[in-house]
Amino acid sequence: MSSPETKRKRSLLSRLVRRIIMVLYRWKGWTIDGHLPDLPKFVIAGAPHTSNWDFVFFIGATAEEGVEPNFMGKHTLFQGIMRNFMFDMGGIPIDRTKRANYVEQVAAEFARRDHLALVIAAEGTRSTDGSWKSGFYNIARAANVPVVPAWVCNERNILGFGPPIWPTGDYGQDLLKIAQFMRSKLPDYARYTVLEAQALKLIEENGHA
User: Fold this and answer.
1) DSSP calls for 24-38
2) CA 57, 61, 66: angle at the middle one, nearest 5?
3) Model confidence pLDDT, tens digit, residues 182-197
4) What is residue 161's three-state secondary structure?
5) Which residue, among 155, 161, 156, has the nearest Cα to 178 in the 3D structure?
6) How far apart are CA 156 and CA 71, in angstroms?
7) What is the DSSP string of 75-93?
8) Residue 72 main-chain phi, psi, to 5 deg
9) Residue 152 to residue 136: CA distance in whole angstroms
10) For 95, which of 75, 144, 161, 193 could close a Cys bridge (C-beta 3.0–4.6 Å)?
11) C-beta of residue 122 within 8 angstroms of C-beta of residue 46
12) What's the predicted TM-score (pTM) here?
């Protein structure tokens, strides 16, 4: 179930864009390490976020896994001539003017749907030092779904998926599990070193060192 309008035929533009994405993905020679879980709902927390092309290759990789990913977008993008296209591409509108915050809005969307694989750039911005925002975790916890860590190596054109991690409520410890998985794939990558340090600091601050 990729959008509220699954009975409607997908827009021509969205079908063309998906075909172009798959052509680019295969032309670039991307390969997948690991697999997405055989679960109906989960959050994919991906890093690093270094390019506007990141989501393109995520669409390609998830398509290879037989999954159509979803993403969050400002509700104003889902109006007028862009409405159908945004829904068809997997968009979930988030209205920042609503009383319910974005975590509650996305959690409600998880509850409403039978299948949902939400892709989130966990770093939040391309200019980050490697620290992660907690939004992906708060959404997964509120929706009672696992987090699937996803790593990227642009030099070798590899996109990998890790095992699902169910939120325990201890963000520092759960983030450390994710960081250790990421570092097991790219031990010398600076951003993942920063991520591990962030997790350890959270654990220390919470008195669990």
Assistant:
1) HHHHTT-EEES---S
2) 140
3) 999 999 999 999 999 9
4) strand
5) 161
6) 25
7) GGGGSGGGHHHHHHTTEEE
8) -95, 145
9) 17
10) 75
11) yes
12) 0.90
Residue located via tokens 């699937």: 148
Q: Residue 78 has what pLDDT?
A: 93
Q: Which two tokens stand for residue 106?
A: 């996305």
DSSP-derived letter for residue 134 is: S
pLDDT digits (tens, 9 = 90+) for 122-178: 998 777 889 999 999 999 999 999 999 999 998 888 999 999 999 999 999 999 999
Which 8-state DSSP code applies to residue 66? T
Q: Which residues of 37-57 are buried (b: 16+ CB within 10 A; e: fewer)?
A: beeebbbbbbbbbeeeebbbb
H helix intervals, the chain: 12-27, 54-64, 83-88, 102-112, 135-143, 171-185, 190-205
On the question of pLDDT at 77 being above 60, the answer is yes
68: CB partners within 8 A, 6+ apart:
2, 62, 90, 117
Angle value at C-alpha 27, between 24 and 28, nearest 5 degrees: 85
Which residues are registered as beta bridge partners of 159?
A: 32, 152
CA distance 11 to 15: 6
The angle at the Cα of 121, spanning 116 to 124, to the nearest 5 degrees, equals 135
Residue count (the chain):
209
Side chain identity at 175, as an amino acid letter?
L
Residue 208 pLDDT > 80: no
Count the Cβ atoms, other than its own, within 10 Å of residue 136: 25
